[in-house]
Amino acid sequence: MTQGTRLVVDAVTMRFGGLTAVDGVSFTAEPGDITAVIGPNGAGKTTLFNCITGFYRASSGRIMLGETALHRLPGHRIALAGVARTFQNIRLFGGMTCLENLLVAQHRRLMAASWFGIGAVLGLSRYPAAEREAVERARAWLEATDLLDRADDAAGSLPYGAQRRLEIARAMCTGPRLLCLDEPAAGLNPRESAALSQLVRAIRDGTAAGADPCSVLLIEHDMGVVMGISDKIVVLDHGARIAMGTPAEIRADPNVIAAYLGEDEPA
Ligand SMILES: Nc1ncnc2c1ncn2[C@@H]1O[C@H](COP(=O)(O)OP(=O)(O)OP(=O)(O)O)[C@@H](O)[C@H]1O
């Protein structure tokens, strides 16, 4: 069993014209850890996330996932390298069922098993076995996210909190080495936030859906969730890293408290 994969973010800078949205940020997200990136509005969190997940190419710096240089890969190769993400705004196929959403997420695996259609034409395909596995994996993640009874319902008909869990299930169906969550607790009620925290811990520890442990990186404004589940917190302000440490260290850091003055104070 793997123990997740180390993410190294090394002096990453992202400029938009004259604006430096991320300014030489470095940190490592250790295997087996939940690492949170926090900071006031406009601090550069989403931009940094977009660099890691391949939506932007960093202006400079290195991003390594294990031995893989993510910063050198085109955006569409990042998922293949083992990075899965969820979005601030939910992006599910609303008209498809929950199960179908999780099967679509596995289409690359299924295509590979059918040798991209050629094996199927020749009757040599491993597709049926792969399809069975894909359905089993999808059902395991539906169960882990408490959505098994909604498997055949349209994703768009689910309550908001359930859609957020389905997004995580979909990301996990790709078998990632690193899961990036962009404000997963946004809009959740306290009970749903608690269930989310438990799910993210289980993903980190490899106790959900029979999957291996997975490193987790999250952006989150809900300080209850951040302080409750993070092993390490990286704090950004005006694009730069101003603090890094355990939740207890971050809570007591005067730089962090100063950065948040006028915002919601952490903890
Ligand atoms: N595509 C873009 N083009 C130009 N400027 C951008 C772009 N994306 C982000 N920015 C700017 O970069 C800075 C950092 O924004 P970013 O969205 O990364 O912050 P954030 O910490 O995620 O904020 P929030 O908590 O409000 O989501 C902001 O000044 C923003 O206006």
TrEMBL record:
Domain of life: Bacteria
Record's signal peptide: none
Domain ABC transporter: 7-263
Entry keywords, A to Z: Amino-acid transport, ATP-binding, Nucleotide-binding, Transport
GO molecular function: ATP binding; ATP hydrolysis activity; L-isoleucine transmembrane transporter activity; L-phenylalanine transmembrane transporter activity; L-valine transmembrane transporter activity
Pfam family for this entry, one: ABC_tran
Biological processes annotated in GO: D-alanine transmembrane transport; L-alanine transport; L-isoleucine import across plasma membrane; L-valine import across plasma membrane
Gene Ontology CC: plasma membrane
Family indicated by similarity: Belongs to the ABC transporter superfamily.
Protein name: Branched-chain amino acid transport system ATP-binding protein
